[in-house]
Specification:
Layout lengths: L10 H23 L1 H7 L13 H28 L1 H18 L6 H30 L3 H28 L6 H19 L23 H30 L7 H22 L4 H21 L3 H14 L4 H12 L4 H30 L3 H41 L1
Helix pairs in contact: 1-4, 1-5, 1-6, 1-7, 3-4, 3-5, 3-13, 4-5, 4-7, 5-6, 5-13, 6-9, 6-12, 8-11, 8-12, 8-13, 8-14, 9-11, 10-11, 10-12, 10-14, 12-13, 13-14
């Protein structure tokens, strides 16, 4: 990609890609908002208090992570060889299938299969949108990639209002699913015709030696950071409601509101820092360090207000685009394999999603009422590992830059 290209003609494409992440934000969380409706539809057992047993629905939601793991090994190479457009269109099509079909699924097993389809859609969009942002916005690609998180956050902020709108008008619970399906279908049609920027295509040549991605220590650390940075906010998301109840917070759902505000504010602050040429690798040390201090404060100060303050701070310093920063830095390292490296980082994130949430469930059972505080300790341990990895990343990058400069000097 040597020629200079006017990126402005790709801005409508970027907007359409951001809309796919808006849909992703809804699709990733909407089943959790309608667990009782799905449980009733799938003939779940009725509990003593008259509600339905939602454990089967929770298992279906967990299958989204499985779908991501299944698709990433295919989605990344496909994006690099056949183009970002194809990956985006596959993601849109899979989301349309999920959103149109899941509320009509006759049983739990069909629902489980459709949740896997949803996770696969997520993977194909990830391996299209992140590389596309880097290629459309070039020097500002890292900033542009952070704002993919903003699209998700806006969707998840608006979703409760949409649910209230539907409930007040006594519309069927599938209304939002169908409306979102219509949005992704229309957006997919636009993406089918909008221009995509040129990219450094990976091509297999007959008889030529296979070109391998060279994984430096810094690249390996970035993949590991995909795991640790995801863990910090995933564990918080899965324990904050119970922790709020344990600490005597009258309305634990307020934590989520503070968390969302923190995320949105962080995105703008991070963008401003990057615009001032603050190195992303340094942010990857600073933000998790504050997140660790916040987790420690929440553990030590057992007051309701700490849950609200902690929700805001963890939204800012743990969920506010840190994973997107990791992915963007990795994309800069592998310009010819952006789809593949995005897949690898996101596989690490998906593994974290499965493993740490499972571990949190075990700790909750072991700890009883103190289970949420055990999860906090576990979260602190993983976050500390992430900080150490980020410090090592900075040292590796500095060493690599010094070596590259010395090599250039020697060639003169």
């Amino acid at each position: 990609m040597n020629q200079t290209v006017d990126s402005r003609k790709y801005y409508p494409t970027a907007l359409a890609l951001y809309i796919t992440y808006f849909v992703l934000g809804i699709a990733a969380s909407i089943m959790g908002q309608y667990k009782q409706d799905f449980a009733a539809m799938w003939d779940a057992a009725v509990l003593a208090d008259g509600s339905y047993d939602v454990s089967g629905v929770v298992a279906v939601i967990a299958a989204i992570g499985l779908g991501r793991l299944i698709a990433f090994p295919v989605a990344g190479p496909l994006s690099d060889r056949l183009g970002r457009r194809l990956s985006a269109l596959i993601g849109c099509a899979l989301y349309a299938v999920f959103l149109l079909a899941v509320t009509f699924s006759p049983n739990l097993y069909v629902g489980y299969a459709l949740a896997i389809v949803s996770g696969m859609a997520n993977s194909f969009l990830d391996t299209s949108i992140t590389p596309s942002c880097m290629e459309i916005f070039k020097e500002k690609g890292t900033i542009a990639n952070i704002f993919t998180k903003l699209s998700i956050s806006i969707a998840q902020f608006l979703l409760p209002f949409a649910i209230s709108f539907v409930a007040v008008r006594e519309l069927p619970f599938r209304t939002i699913f169908l409306a979102t399906a219509a949005l992704i279908i229309v957006d997919g049609l636009f993406l089918a015709f909008l221009p995509f920027p040129p990219f450094e295509r990976t091509v297999k040549v007959q008889g030529a030696p296979k070109e391998r991605m060279q994984f430096t220590p810094s690249a390996v650390v970035l993949v590991c950071l995909g795991f640790t940075t995801s863990t910090t906010f995933m564990l918080w998301l899965n324990c904050n409601q119970e922790l709020g109840t344990l600490y005597g917070l009258s309305d634990p759902s307020r934590i989520q509101s503070f968390y969302s505000v923190g995320i949105v504010l962080a995105l703008f602050v991070s963008a401003a820092l990057l615009k001032r040429n603050v190195e992303p690798a340094k942010i990857l040390v600073a933000y998790p360090t504050v997140a660790l201090a916040t987790l420690a404060a929440i553990y030590l100060i057992q007051e309701p207000v700490m849950c609200l303050a902690g929700g805001f701070l963890l939204g800012f310093f743990a969920a506010g685009g840190v994973l997107q920063l990791v992915t963007a830095v990795a994309n800069e390292m592998f310009p010819r394999n952006r789809g593949v490296i995005t897949s690898i980082v996101m596989i690490a994130s998906s593994v974290a999603n499965y493993l740490v949430v499972s571990a949190a469930g075990v700790l909750t059972r072991i700890g009883g009422t103190e289970g949420p505080r055990l999860v906090l300790l576990f979260n602190m341990a993983v976050t500390l590992i992430g900080i150490l990895l980020a410090l090592y990343l900075n040292a590796c990058l500095k060493r690599e830059r010094t070596g590259a400069a010395a090599a250039m000097e020697a060639q003169r």
